[in-house]
Amino acid sequence: MSSLQVLGGISRAGHVLGPSLDKIIKNVAWRKHAQLVAACKSVLDKLETIKDSPDPIPDTPIFGFIPADAEFVLQPLILAIESASVKVIEPALECVVKLFSQGLIRGEIDRPESNDNPSVLYRLIDSIFKCAVVGEDGIELAVLRALCTAVRSPCVLIRGGCLIQIVKICYNVYVGSMSNTNQICAKVVLAQILMIVNARVEEDSMDAKIRAVTVGGLLEVSDKSLNDWSLIQSVQTFIEDIVESSQGVSDLKLSISPSLKLRNGHVSGSTEEGKGEFGDGESVDREGSSCGSKIREDGFLLFKNLCKFSLKFPTQENPEDQVLLRGKVLSLELLKVAMDHASSFWRTDERFLSAIKQYLCLSLLKNSTLSVMTVFQLLCSIFMSLLSKFRSELKAEIGIFFPMLVLRVLENVLQPSFMQKMTVLNLLERISQDSQIIIDIFVNYDCDVDAPNIFERTVNGLVKTALGPPLGSTTTLTPAQDMAFRVESIKCLTGIIKSMGAWMDQQLRDTDLSLLKSPESDASTENHSMLNGEEGAAVDCELETSSELSEAASLEQRRAFKIEFQKGISLFNRKPSKGIEFLMRAKMIGGSPEEVASFLKNTTGLNETMIGDYLGEREEFPLKVMHAYVDSFNFEGKDFGEAIRFFLRGFRLPGEAQKIDRIMEKFAERYCKCNPNSFTSADTAYVLAYSVIMLNTDAHNSMVKDKMLKTDFIRNNRGIDDGKDLPEEYLGALYDQIVKNEIKMSADCSAPQNKQANSFNKLLGLDGLFNLINWKQTEEKPLSANGALIKHIQEQIKAKSGKSESVYYVVTDTAILRFMVEVCWAPMFAAFSVTLDQSDDKTATFQSLQGFRHAVHVTAVMGMQTQRDAFVTSMAKFTFLHCAADMKQKNVDAMKAIISIAIEDGNYLQEAWEHILTCLSRFEQLHLLGEGAPPDASFFVVSLSETEEKTHKSSGFPSLKKKGNALQNPAVMAVVRGGSYDSTTLGIKASALVTPDQINQFISNLNLLDQIGNFELNHIFAHSQRLNSEAIVTFVKTLCKVSMAELQSPTDPRVFSLTKIVEIAHYNMNRIRLVWSRIWSVLSDFFVAVGLSENLSVAIFVMDSLRQLAMKFLEREELANYNFQNEFLRPFVIVMQKSNSAEIRELIVRCVTQMVLSRVSNVKSGWKIVFTVFTTAAADERKNIVLLAFETMEKIVREYFPYITETETTTFTYCVKCLITFTNSRFNSDVSLNAIAFLRFCAVKLADGGLICYDKSEEGDSSIPIVDEDDSSGHPFTDEDDHVSFWVPLLTGLSKLTSDPRQTIRRSALEVLFNILKDHGHTFSQPFWLGVFRSVILPIFSNSKGKGETNNIHDGRFSSDSKSPQPVESPSNSEILTEAAQYLVDLFVSFFDSVRSQLPSVVSVLTGFISSPVQSPASTGVAALQRLAGDLGDRLSDEEWGEIFMRLKEAAAYTLPEILRVLKTMDDIEVSDDSQTHTDMELFSDHEIINDDLEDDSLQIASYVLSRVKGHIAVQLLIIQVITELYKAHHQLLAAANITVLLEIFSSVTSHAHKLNSETILQVKLRKVCSILEISDPPIVHFENESYQSYLNFLHSILTDNPSLYERMNIEPQLVAVCEEILQKYLNCSGCQSKQTPGNQPVPCWRLPLGSAKKEELAARTPLTVLALQVLSGLERDSFRRCVTHFFPLLVDLVQSEHSSGEVLHVLSHMFQSCIGPIIMGL
After folding, report:
1. pLDDT tens-digit map of 1504-1552
2. Torsion angle of the four alpha carbons 1079, 1085, 1087, 1088, in this order, in degrees rounded to the nearest 10
3. Catalytic residue among 113, 220, 636, 656
4. How many Å apart are CA 81 and CA 85, to the nearest integer?
5. How do residues 194-232 score in pLDDT, each as one tens digit?
6. SS3 content of the chain, % helix, strand, coil (to 5)
7. 3-state secondary structure of 1429
8. Can 1143 be counted among the known catalytic residues?
9. Closest Cα partner for 662 from 619, 721, 617?
10. SS3 1309
11. 3-state secondary structure string across 184-201
């Protein structure tokens, strides 16, 4: 062999084999191992000639070699390994490792069915197995490396028994090696092999990625003594080298022949049996399925055998077998590794899942009976993996294991095993960190009627542990152990509530995201697999979803059913009959005896004693139930002892003999029916059953001293079989069976519930909450390895799995949390509260506070107000801010937690904000005290002098942290005294004494508060910007409530919350309009309420705060047509209007003034509020407020008028109203006059278009509706121009001002009003003019008579219900009204074309003046009416003239009824007692008549009547005067109809005058009154004469002016009639009355001389008579001829009558000569 040649040839395998074989040759003893040496040399020679085949060679053990060559070259390695020489074995194993790691060895290795012809690879592996017993540490390690490398190789499939044998070898090394390193390596290799197999099983491929085992994790439970860091590092390197050595080898697999292809190869045949030694000789169980791959079959086989090996228990001969125990621990650790790394395949493959249920669960069940701590820890770890990954598939199993492994230990509070319970607590801590597990447990167990309440029991168990053993109980725990339990329990409870919150948050996020997805993605989401477990892998399991009901609704029904069902069970356990009735009534069980019996037999939780009592009842229905219960058992083929044991396992026999008798009688009947050949009759079974019961009690009752012997038992049962004896062998066997194995009817019922003394701090308010926690100590005894018990549990699992309720539910509806919280909140609240109150352990208190935080988060988000408020309130109490002297670090931590809650869960706190904000307020108060700052009350006090300020500063508040003289600080003293949490202020115990020690403690506690800076507090308020719309409103409401409480403190008002209100309002100003409106609605009410506070200082401070906020708000720009500023500033108006404090009102005026003048360019909609405030101020009772407001108003109007209507022209209206209110100021006339002047200025601006631009519409323009002048029903204003709404308040305001009691104001308002109308009336449309007249001008004259205003304004428009006024003159207003009438006429004439339709109203006003009882306004009316007619003249139509005359006619008739009523009052006044005839009165008329008997009251009435009569006469005469003058001036324009109206007026007045003059008695009375009062008589005669004269002149003027009209209207008869009336009245006055006989012959009579009164009257009537005679004389001849026959007799009487002068006779003479004479002569 050349030195240049490489040993082994050029093949890849030769490169590995050559050096190794050479080394073997060198190390081997040639003589002893000659065959080995020869084989090595032969192989080396052979290798020189072998080359790697370029083509894949099928079925070859070595890559590139033909099978024969491969088998030849491997033979020396087998011989070397079997040589038992360490020096030879080591290089051989090293060579094997290289061959496996480099992928040179290929194929499938399995134990052959027979040893006749094993494969070379199996012989190689088998040789490695054999050398493992050499005992050398190095060889053991090499064997482990070789076996692990072989399994790791992707080119070799080690199957079945061979794989199990590898595991056995590693196991033997682990339990038998003397080297710690080898033991750890063996364990690690086993774990690595298991991981390799599982990885390949998952992917069903040899190419699976393999990860190295973490050595440290395998030593956590067992082998802790070997836990050396250097050793662990070396073993870790060892296993990593093995794993990494085969990386990339799988690429060579392409050269493998198809016949050996490993992926998805299948087993030929349905079953293969592989046998081999496992441990102590147990055969290897190997089952396979023809449809499963080889890889997965091997994985299944390995897992199953590991489970079976873990089920080995020590024998009775060697109960302390440590080797077996180590092996059990190792197998459990390997099972733990398998479960920890189980993939989704394990949950989807039925074989593996069945293996878990059948083998692993059985292992857990049996091993749970051991008291070995390591085993228990491993069981808990495996259970955790099952719970995490397989809970959906193992619902029934977990429902059994959880109470058995966890709850049994957890609920043992008094005498637990410390290590066991710590293990359980650690397990629960891990469970609590998985939110999905927590939810799934509650949904699938607590909501399942057939499952235990695992979640509820877990929480209650943790709470019991956290609270410690009940007071007065005996426990084996040390204080340290008890504290450890408490801390861990609190951690678990915190973890549970935290996980609930995390799950809730995740579901809410997923819901929000799902809203953004498309419908397709939504549909796919509905069917996606459940995610759970630590790896978050998908679980493909049977999940039940409800299409009809939502998840939460369905679960709610199930939960409610379970609660009700448990209520029925609880009632049954107290009173069985009532419990059955309750459940039947609720339809939870059927009403038949069979259904009730099934309920008693199969329902868990029933009290076995109560079942027995119920079955033993003699009532009909319970008796039927008992029969059905017994008949439900099948005793066929069962031994009597076994049958009775089986029968009694479900209930406890009652204590009453009769009840037992009935039950045993039925049992005997059923047994004999099932086994007819067992006894002669049922009586035999009945007696024997009684004997068995007695024997069981006798044998197993410790109180029985003399035990029954077998002979006694046989003797007692002689002759019971129908007089015959039962076989002694039978009875003896039965005796032995009962004595050895007690009939356990049932475990004793748990002791009654212990009533716990309420020794907890009353402050927590937990008395009622502890009643919610079940304190029943269900101390379960450790399970034994009793096969019957294990079998019973397995039956339970099988039964539960078969029920429909075993379906596993997965929910995503967060509503399920409500039911969970209802279950756990009270216990958790108790645990957290008590721990926080009683414990000073930092970890415990920290966890409790965390629990509070997460509980608040869950309850707040879920909207559970009661629970949320309970947690928040408790936390607030635990801050101890109300009694700071007792504060500790945990209380400061509570404050920190509250701040965190406020920041993180602010959106959901709602009313709970009150407690948080109260804490912040108290914290800030303590902080200020610590800093030495003065109390907030000092802000409200105004120092009286500079001296007082200096004194105040010198005796101020030193920093308490510097330990100043705190005893002299009253604020500190009050705080140290403390108070209750619910007190609004600190320090309510004013009478309590404070010691220096308490002060020092308080100061020390204040230093703790430094941990919380102002930044954290301010962050809460700054964070308010992130609150949602509802939350920010609630936050503001609560803050206002807290601030109100602060400010209303009678002794120590504070402003902390008030300042924060200003801050949050500033922070949230940028919110959307709707939200900000709601916020400000709350703030507005708050500012108003506090602004109206009786505490003036507080109110002033609040209004100043509002001013600051308003100033900030006004810095923002406001767009046009928005109303933000108006709403914002509204509190100023409300307080201004309602406040009784002049100081507040003045402050508001100053605040508004400052805001306006400093932010005038930013004020938009706020102008409305500004003017409203000033309007209120204008009507204030304080002069300084009025003047201050007007001063600002004057500046605004003069300098800033353009800003007023810059964005909203309607503010002009508010400005006008404000100025009008100032005009009513009673303090200063100058203010009123200036306000009126400003109104004129506003009118100028309005007319000039200073507000808006509008087009001046012509009359008749189509854009302005024209109202028909004759349409009185039409609306007086229909103009739609925008400027109308601005004119209305201005004009109506001035109109109302004309009725002001101050003359200068009235005059000025009247002048300004009419000047405005006259100057700017040309801009008004016709409809608007109509409204102006009806609602502005006419009410001026209406108001003058003191009536209510008739003008109404709606929405800036005139209403249509104004009526024409009828003013009555008041002497004080006559001058003003005169001017008003003049203004009215001027205005009407100037705008006649636009206001023509208002002529009737204007004439009504003027005729109202004329009809006034006072002469001055009447004269004014006459002049005004004449001017009106004169100025209009020919512009008036006939209808309009007719309207004027009709109004005059109405005015003439207006006072007639009233004057008649006045005159009637004289009827009741007696002027003289003695009656005198009219003649006597005339005779003595010259003498003065004085009647002293006239009473004063009658005199006053008569005087009033007299004045009214004189005024009435003057009015009537003025009416006659005005129509006469109007006719004279415009007779050419008057139509016949108008002349007719005039005639009617004259006729009416003359008739009235005649009637008035006819009242002689009245005239006498009036004259007597005038004589008494020494005043002139009423001119009644003059009135009559003037009226007739005017009437006659009018008729005559018609004749002369318009003869045609005279003839057409036939005026002549009226003229002659009037003349006749005049002549007749003259004759009557003269006393000449012709008396004629029936024959028409005059009768002579005597005439008495006239008295002086009659002579005077006659003289007064003479001119009228003369005029009448002259008119008659002036008639045309024909007319005179026609009429003379009518009045000729009167002429004759005139001739013979007495006259006062010769004028009548002279005219009469002329008439006879010129008129009558020619007629006579002509005859």
Report:
1. 777 777 777 777 788 888 878 877 777 777 777 777 777 778 777 887 7
2. 160
3. 656
4. 8
5. 888 888 888 888 888 888 888 887 777 777 666 678 888
6. 65, 0, 30
7. helix
8. no
9. 617
10. helix
11. HHHHHHHHHHHHHHHHHH
